[in-house]
Design a protein that fits this description.
The protein is α/β, with parallel strands linked by helices. The protein contains 3 helices and 6 strands; from the N terminus they run βββααβαββ. 22% of the residues lie in helices and 35% in strands.
Length: 141
């Protein structure tokens, strides 16, 4: 499981000209990718890391500040560009495996008390963000 986490002032996801998820206060935009070998055993660890990651201002986390997260599924995080000019997607989990794991991470975050909005799995999404910093990290489990 891999996440690209950006500290943002605001962020939103639009599908077919309708906003399907947004945060309009400082928080985290999380692009979440699932690999072919990922299982439910990694869900709790990823959710805990995202919730408790101390990357907000003054080394705070979403857990300590109540800052929201916008979680967007992103299979392209597992694109392999080492050979040729076209990425290989063989390391990315198939949708029927990835979607339940993304949903489980979101559910786990909400169980922890996190305010979470999401994109729409498999949709053509337009993601907009105003970065804070910029400050971006990769979380890999």
């Amino acid at each position: 499981m891999r996440a690209v986490v950006a500290r943002v002032l605001s962020a939103s996801v639009t599908v077919d000209d309708a906003v399907v998820g947004q945060i309009d206060v400082p928080g985290l935009l999380v692009l979440l990718g699932i690999a072919t070998d990922d299982t439910a055993a990694k869900v709790d660890t990823m959710a805990r890391k995202l919730h408790e990651l101390r990357v907000l201002r003054d080394e705070q986390s979403c857990a300590t500040t109540g800052a929201p997260l916008l979680v967007v599924s992103q299979f392209t995080l597992y694109g392999d560009t080492r050979k040729g000019r076209r990425p290989s997607w063989t390391a990315a989990a198939r949708p029927e495996v990835a979607e339940p794991l993304v949903d489980a991470v979101v559910a786990n975050l909400r169980t922890r008390g996190a305010q979470v909005d999401t994109g729409r799995f498999g949709a053509a999404m337009a993601v907009t963000s105003i970065n804070d910093g910029p400050f971006t990290v990769i979380v890999e489990i």
